[in-house]
Fold:
Amino acid sequence: MTALEAVRGTGSQPIPLTVLGVYGAAGLLTAAGLGSTLGHGLAEPRIALAFGVLIAVGELARRYAPPGEREPAPLGAAGALGYALLGENAGEPTTHGVLQTIAVVLTAGLAGAVPHLVRGQGPALDHTVGRVLTVGFAAVCFQPLYHSGELRECFGTGPGYAILLLLLLVLTALCDAVLAALILRARTRHPFGPLLRDELRALLHIGSAVCATGAVIALGVAVAGLWALPVFCVPLLLTQLSYRRYAAVRTTYRQTIASLARATEIAGYTPHGHSRRVAELSRAVGRELGLSGSELTVLEYAALMHDIGQLSLVDPVPEGATALLPVAEQRRIALLGGAVVRQTGVPAAVAVVVERQADPYREQPMSARIIRTVNAYDDLAGERAGASGPLDALERLRLGTGHDYQPEVVESLARVLLRGGPAPGGRG
Structure:
């Protein structure tokens, strides 16, 4: 699936109780599935092998992205869902059941991940847990009812049966999205609503293709047998390979913007790491305030390039601290920065945010409010004269909430810092 595959672990931080509960449920399902399959033997090994190979190939073709990016394996997810919803093979009833479905999907997924593990890019535990739970949910909803004969009596084998499969897949995708949002909420403490909204948005893209292909696989194998697998899966495999190329282009694009943003540091206009810190902290604050994925991307790009207008100055700002300049000078630098950004080919929305970062906050878009607040925090917290560190910087921001900084943004910044945001840099 696409939702839980996007979730990454957070290093050495303690695992929240919600995540432990999800892990416990997945562990019980895994133990039951492996124990039952080993104890009773593998039913219909030819079918299990065919679907296992399909899932393993999907995992093998997966691109493991950096934290924060989605890492879809649509072919493996569609194959797993197809196996969970498989009731017949070429007109003959199947007997693999729920527990064997979980065992085959888990084993095949881990087998396909071996080359990635060798390179140190194996799947996050959250991805494996999510696959077990979502596939288990689909199998529990379908297998018992199908083998009891109730589905045939109610829906027959025509269009009604196909619609039922699609409805089950939609429910499975919704379950996946809710689980992903819950885990992210537990790990990051970001608002649940925006997290769920982002997961549901993803379902409209690659998620819909995965669900449709999963249903087509189950229906195709039921009629034509296992020969239907390669026929229906080649388009999705090509889509997955195309996504890898697209993701590589996006990574290069972001690296180009980050390199351009470092021009002010190389030229000595801003301290080392300032733009990176502002971008990281702005993104965290934006997530805290409920910005969507596309809005966070614009926010991050604008934060990386927020000081680029200083390259147009004849004399550098002392230690690059624009928050300490008169408002008119801040606006002049922001307008210069916007003009530079417009020449780089990045989206126009990024240039607008850079240009508006020095306006009174009531006249700014939300992204500009965030960048102005976070930039001021990094300037003030790293300033050697007149500041005693982050606490004093936050207090000075709070004193400026009447005109310069939106109170909600300042308080969101304080919450992010309380959880351990990027440390401010020195100005000396």
The CA atoms of residues 265 and 271 lie 6 Å apart. The first strand starts at residue 88 and ends at 89.
